[in-house]
Amino acid sequence: MSEAKTVGDENSGRSRRHARLEAFYRRYSPWLVARLRRRFGADTEDLVQEIWLRVAAIEADLDIRHPRAFLLKVAFNIGLSGDRQHRRRRQILDSAAPLGTMALEPTQNAAVQIQEIVLALPQPLRDVFVLSRFGGLTNNQIAEQLDISPKTVEWRMTKALAQCAAELRR
To answer: Which residues does the UniProt record annotate as the domain RNA polymerase sigma-70 region (predicted)?
Structure first.
């Protein structure tokens, strides 16, 4: 009987925490988006989503005295983490064979065109594409090296291939 009560109390605690987190999100999310959009532009929505994921993962009570300062500190920490990821990604890509040394057979002109298309891809898409197509890595290996989920690797690869195909049709 006491075990059922404990489970019920635990579920009740979770739902209260969820309600507080939702209220916190609704109150500060518009402010956070507006504040970060000035600095991060198109990447703001991704950053804000990452901030809320980190806040939701915090086990402690959400009784925060200065919520705006707290959210900006989380954003700053994500930025530091992103800088580390960027350096790691750069090291991985620098160690991969350069595109210019790849044999792309069809003709020299086609090889140059393909290289230009790949280099024009947005950085996150290009990283995944190069590691997959030129580095021969699997989605799981790419996810591990870039510190992203395999699903994100799959999504980025799909977008990269679609953009390459669209450019080749032009």
So the answer is: 24-77
Strand, coil or helix: 74 = helix
At 52-107, the pLDDT tens digits run 888 888 766 667 788 888 888 888 777 766 656 666 667 666 666 555 555 444 56
Question: Are the C-beta atoms of 130 and 99 separated by less than 8 Å?
Answer: yes
Report how far Cα 87 is from the mean position of its chain's Cα atoms: 15
Q: What is the CATH number of the domain that holds 138?
A: 1.10.10.10
Contact 145, 95 (CB under 8 A): no
CA distances from 18 to 55, 115, 117, 130 (A): 11, 48, 45, 41
pTM here is 0.43
Per-residue pLDDT at 70? 85
Expressed as residue numbers, the domain containing 146 is 96-169
Give the C-alpha separation, 158 to 2, whole Å.
52
